[in-house]
Design a protein that fits this description.
Number of strands: 0
Oligomer: single chain
Radius of gyration: 43 Å
Strand content: under 5%
Largest sheet: none
Structural class: mainly alpha
Helix content: over 70%
């Protein structure tokens, strides 16, 4: 058992100003380290969420592409894709191209209107000459 004087020495040493200052410095260093780890953890969590969103988007795109592949593996799907991308027809089919009717009177009136507008603009500026 400790002697009364020895207990007093230990208490004096533990409660001394230097010991308390050293313990406060250690606590501050530990708190800074904990805060840095917390910041790193938050950053990693944000990156993980972004990667999970990317993964979900890629999974959705993979499902769409798999559906397209299944559609293209059928004869009807292949024919639809070829007809949509290229102007092709089967043997015995005829291709009809519909062209809108071109009205010559409209084409003639547009430049004249522009010329009239330009002439009227320049006629207003004749006093500069």
């Amino acid at each position: 058992m400790f002697d009364f004087h020895e207990k007093r020495k230990i208490r004096g040493w533990l409660y001394s100003k230097t010991t308390i200052i050293i313990l406060c410095i250690l606590a501050a260093l530990l708190s800074v380290s904990v805060y840095e780890r917390f910041a790193v953890e938050r950053m990693v969590a944000e990156k993980r969420m972004e990667r999970e969103e990317d993964l979900n988007a890629l999974k959705a795109r993979a499902e769409v592409l798999e559906g397209d592949i299944e559609h293209l593996q059928s004869d009807r799907g292949l024919e639809e894709e070829l007809r949509s991308r290229f102007d092709v027809a089967k043997e015995g089919e005829q291709v009809i191209i519909i062209v809108e009717d071109y009205d010559d009177t409209q084409a003639r009136t547009v430049p004249r209107t522009r010329e009239r507008q330009e002439d009227s603009f320049f006629e207003k500026l004749k006093f500069w000459q």
